[in-house]
Design brief:
Layout (H helix, E strand, L loop, with lengths): L5 E5 L5 H11 L4 H11 L6 E6 L2 E15 L2 E13 L8 H16 L3 E5 L3 H5 L4 E11 L12 E4 L2 H15 L11 H6 L12 E6 L2 E8 L3 E7 L4 H17 L4 E5 L6 H7 L3 E12 L2 H18 L8 E7 L2 E8 L2 E6 L6 E4 L2 H9 L11 H10 L14
Parallel strand pairs: 4-5, 10-11, 13-16
Antiparallel strand pairs: 1-2, 2-3, 3-4, 5-12, 6-11, 6-12, 7-8, 8-9, 9-10, 13-14, 14-15
Length: 395
């Protein structure tokens, strides 16, 4: 306990009553939802970081260590949810205390970056998080395009029978998509007990020859996630038709769908004159840039080996972003990542958003004030990819 009577720490085993008192006082969401978060998302009570005053929680965040794909490798990403400060104790800096405390925890976990899903940008921006774009497509429902796609049988998802097949399709569909969450069996078994945005009546699978080849998850106005086997693109359209037919039967006039930018279905949606929105509720922040780049080094070396440049790029390039610095050195087909900036080298100075745009290979334009050799190196290390964060994954 500090001299001011304020304590910043994690909850202890046996302090569930303090947490439940906070949730009850907060209101708006049943305690069962928060209990299922703990049951379904893993972690310990210590991962609930709190500001305590006189034995009462006045501010709280729940943090998670998530593993996300990045090219052919994976990285640790610090996530956050259940951010709350008691109305009588706001604007006193308690929330910022917990954001800083969380970053220290992420550093201890070995996270290269942090991700938060929130529309309250200014609060997180004050501690270094920056917006990262996700694309949403809004489509008017018209009866004339409710035409079933031949070759596929679409039906409701059966969690007892279909879960393993859906999990395999998810892994295949997203295997090369940076930022997509690595979902283990625990995730799939527990997720449906707490998913607040999902309506299981709108969770469909597509079959052909008795095999599940695609799935789609949504509610009565939004499609949150899709996936299908690589040789069954039309299964996505069959699923979309079934989802739209369900929505129309419930009186829905317009639906939204979140998709990666290179998803073939976008071409079909554009024939329907869809409206494209840039959604910026995904917030990213560098936690440890040298660690992040080191995690990606094996992928860098594969790209360097397979690049089609007559003479593979070499040399050193510094990265300066969000108060973090690191240097990548390429020599004889090997890559070395070192903290800080080596004297005399060329340095890429960009915002965190632009750095993440480059590193994920997004379609966002990033101005590069670099020499031709440095641009060649960036092109090889950070090729265009298909990044995606599925909103259903919230944390």
């Amino acid at each position: 306990m500090s001299a001011s009577g304020i304590e910043v720490r994690g909850l202890l085993d046996g302090e569930a009553a303090l947490y439940e008192a906070m949730v009850t006082e907060r209101g708006g969401t049943p305690i069962e939802y928060y209990r299922s978060h703990y049951d379904g998302l893993g972690g310990s009570w210590d991962d609930s970081r709190v500001v305590l005053m006189d034995g009462k929680i006045v501010s709280h965040v729940r943090i998670y260590d998530r593993i996300v794909r990045w090219g052919s490798t994976t990285i640790h990403c610090g996530a956050m949810a259940d951010v709350y400060t008691h109305p009588g104790h706001r604007r006193k800096g308690y929330g910022r205390m917990l954001l800083r405390d969380s970053i220290r925890r992420y550093e201890a976990w070995g996270c290269g970056l942090s991700m938060i899903i929130s529309g309250v940008y200014e609060f997180y921006a004050s501690e270094g998080w920056e917006r990262y774009p996700t694309y949403r497509f809004d489509v008017q429902i018209r009866p004339e395009w409710h035409k079933p796609v031949s070759g596929y049988h679409v039906r409701r998802f059966d969690r007892d029978k279909d879960l393993d097949a859906v999990a395999e399709i998810y892994a295949e569909y997203n295997r090369n998509s940076p930022l997509t969450l690595m979902r283990d069996e625990h995730y799939w078994r527990k997720h449906f007990s707490w998913a607040r945005r999902e309506h299981e009546a709108a969770f469909y699978v597509a079959e052909t020859a008795g095999e599940i080849v695609g799935y789609m998850r949504g509610d009565m106005g939004t499609i949150w996630e899709i996936g299908y086997q690589s040789d069954h693109e039309k299964a996505g359209l069959a699923l979309l038709e079934a989802e739209v037919r369900l929505m129309a039967s419930r009186g829905t006039k317009q639906f939204s769908i979140y998709l990666p930018w290179q998803e073939p279905m976008i071409g079909f949606l554009r024939t329907l004159r869809c409206h494209t929105s840039l959604v910026e509720t995904t917030l990213l922040r560098i936690v440890d840039l040298p660690l992040l780049l080191e995690s990606l080094r094996p992928d860098f070396e594969v790209r360097l080996k397979n690049c089609d440049h007559p003479i593979p790029p070499s040399g050193s390039l510094g990265f300066n972003s969000g108060g973090h610095q690191a240097t990548i050195t390429v020599a004889d087909g090997q890559i070395q990542v070192t903290p800080g900036l080596t004297q005399g080298i060329e340095v890429l100075q960009v915002s965190q958003r632009h750095l993440f745009d480059l590193m994920t290979g997004s379609d966002e334009y990033v101005p590069l004030k670099l020499s031709r050799p440095a641009r060649d190196l960036i092109e090889v290390l950070f090729p265009k990819q298909n990044p995606m964060w599925w909103p259903i994954d919230t944390v």
